[in-house]
Specification:
With 295 residues, the protein is an alpha+beta fold. It is built from four helices and 18 strands.
Length: 295
């Protein structure tokens, strides 16, 4: 499905609705008012009702916020024939120029069928997460060759991660997948990630490359966890080790060090932000698994 010049696709995203702050304030006032009224009929001072009132308000407000955000609020993902944008009341941000080369991959949960779309172009990647435990069975034919299976529970990526958004409750990725696929080159990579040094980190079904260096994806490719000693603290990194000693070492800003990681004083080839680091780990491991399955 490709949108016409005048048509538009709009997907509601998990975010705070405009009324949420007033709703939480109302919950706080009602809860405190209730317990102050109850205590006023006893021998206890009415002000003591603020203690259970605040406790109930915190619980009720949390439930209200959780449900309201899941159903969506002010944030929307919109697409037309030319671009995909992230919109909120303060403006818009272009995620994809559909007339320019881009990268995309669809990750399906290994155990539950959940789906996560990863798109990237000039800026850091954007992740669009489909909420809940997906029930969709067959892969979209347009995404054959770029649909990967991975344990999403093991990846530290959620709607709260930088560069990630989650569809509102009941949202469906299918229309967006069809629209992006209509503008995607058959040989487009799975991931493009700009680096502070100006080089582009690229992941395809065949190789992982950084600038002029590359490591081929084979069933024997290893992804090793490292703990890099830096200024007295350990920094997480992954090493992508290929044949003939080829190694790409990628450090993760703010990423947690995996227990049992190999301690090292090597200098990473590049540092990536938390979301990008987790995406690289996820996609590289999924690529190795796909090659092993003969995909």
């Amino acid at each position: 499905m490709s949108l016409t010049q005048d048509s538009r696709l709009s997907l509601n995203l998990q975010s705070d609705p405009r009324w949420l702050a007033l709703g939480i304030a109302g919950t706080l006032a009602a809860s405190n008012g209730l317990f102050i009224w109850l205590f006023s009929g006893s021998r206890l001072h009415p002000a003591l009702g603020l203690l259970p009132g605040m406790s109930l308000a915190v619980f009720a407000g949390s439930v209200l916020a959780y449900r309201a955000r899941r159903r969506g609020g002010e944030l929307r993902l919109e697409a037309n024939a030319f671009r995909v944008e992230l919109r909120d009341p303060d403006g818009r941000r272009e995620l994809l120029d559909l007339a320019a080369p881009m990268a995309a991959a669809l990750v399906r949960g290994l155990h539950d069928g959940r789906r996560m779309l990863v798109v990237s172009q000039r800026d850091e990647p954007t992740v669009v997460i489909e909420q809940g435990r997906g029930t969709r069975g067959h892969d979209d034919p347009a995404w054959v060759g770029r649909t990967l299976r991975a344990d999403l529970d093991a990846a530290a990526i959620s709607g709260a991660s930088a560069g990630a958004v989650t569809l509102a409750e009941g949202g469906d990725l299918d229309p967006l997948l069809a629209h992006v696929a209509a503008h995607l080159d058959a040989d487009a990579p799975w991931l493009l990630h700009p680096t502070p040094g100006g080089e582009m980190l690229t992941i395809t079904a065949r190789e992982i490359s950084l600038g002029g260096r590359s490591v081929k994806v084979t069933p024997d490719l290893k992804v090793l966890d490292y703990a890099i000693g830096e200024k007295g603290a350990a920094v997480a990194a992954i090493g992508v080790a290929g044949d003939e000693g080829a190694l790409l070492l990628i450090g993760g800003d703010e990423a947690p060090v995996i227990p049992g990681a190999v301690a090292s004083d090597l200098v990473p080839d590049v540092y990536l932000p938390m979301t990008g680091f987790e995406l690289v780990r996820l996609l590289v491991n999924a690529a190795i698994a796909e090659v092993g399955r003969g995909g």
